[in-house]
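Might I ask for a little of your time on a matter of protein folding? What I wish to show you is a protein chain and, alongside it, a tokenised description of its three-dimensional fold. I should value your view on which stretches of the chain appear to form regular backbone elements. You will find the record immediately after this paragraph:
***
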Amino acid sequence: MRKRSLIAIMAAGALVFAACGDDDDDAAGTDVELTTEDTAAPVTVAGDDTTEAAAITAAGADTTEAAAITAAGADTTEAAATTEAGGDTTEAAAITAAGADTTEAAATTEAADTTEAADTTETGGDTTETGGDTTEAADTTEAGTETTTEAITFPVTPGADWPESLVFTLTPSQETGGLIETAEPLAALLEERLGIDVEPIVPADYAGVIVALQSGQAQIAGGLGPLQMVQAEEEAEADLILQSERFGSFEYVTQWFTNDPDTYCDDEPVANEDGLLFCNGILDAESASDGPIGEEHLADVAGETVAFVDQGSASGYLVPALQLLNAGVDPATGITPLFAGTHDASVQAVYDGDAAVGVSFNDARGGMVEQLPDVGEKVVVFAWSFPIPNDGFAVAGDLPDDLKAAVTAALVDIAATPEGAELLASLYEIDGLRPVNPADFDVIRELRTELADLLG
């Protein structure tokens, strides 16, 4: 395996929203330029934190306006799970682990209008055991229509129309340095299965991920929050392929937390088994579907400094902004918004007293206990939002169809291996992957419409 060079990509401007008219065209036409010179707003390939950039440097300078990519830094954790799906799905499940001594013939027979795939695996006359190296990629369409299932054996032979390499962009929901370190071995596993180079990159903000897809400078995107999933499909014309599972669920919530429980808690905060404090009955909730909880206290947030994550984050801004509006508090003028950049940083802002209240996915505090052992005592969760569909993966819409299927199946196969499962858990706390049901994201589409004026 060749040594992978980490690259950096510039994301132009602020976040692009469908409701924002000409901004879509500007972002879609943005190219990323590589330079070795320091600029006024650089993004570093060394271990510096970045928050919204407009350029790229190969040295390690701190930056403060980032829309590009950094290749090193701290550990990352992505947010909770997603809504159960019904309806149309497209599933790719099929893989044989790289290096396996098997070749597979997929025999297809036709009877009437139904196509069935019969998979056989041969190695000098030997057949693989059940649960072996081959899985199946199933394309499922509407009920009553034809379904075709075919197996993919890895490593695949790249198609004649496949690119020589792919760029895999990841959402910087947490500190980007540790994220890229985990992404490198994941990209290597993809390389082994696809037979082409895969380069991992991490933009410095959420907007950079969408710009990379729009501009053709990334072909695979992972850790896409629910808003990014909608943006990827509607603005970058990407195909949504997989959705993440966490803790046995496919949905999660925004959690509201404070360093002033006397103001926001109706009862004495209680600790869970990890020592993290909750109030207003949240600890009694069994799943995200029990939300919203404690929303009656959001009106008390008026006039306070509130730590958000990023304007491109559903749980870190869009959903809580809508909750504030519904509580009669303008999220732009009724509070002092503080955009921390990551979920961890939002928790940190409340812990440090820079904000009285903050928001994140549930429960972002858990990833900070090692760094801040008393974070669960000083930062108390007092409210939940309604359920939010979880993050997922997308591929560029202009890739060959067989490559899209191979990427999808490769990710599913990786998730089914001990090494891959460990990487995905470390990357974004992903426990499993399933095919995307686009209808799950209707709540986000509606939210974007509702907040169009605010976001514009």
Q: What stands out?
A: Confidence is low (pLDDT under 50) at residues 1-149. The longest strand covers residues 103-111. The longest helix spans residues 176-194. Residues 66 and 135 are 41 Å apart (CA to CA).
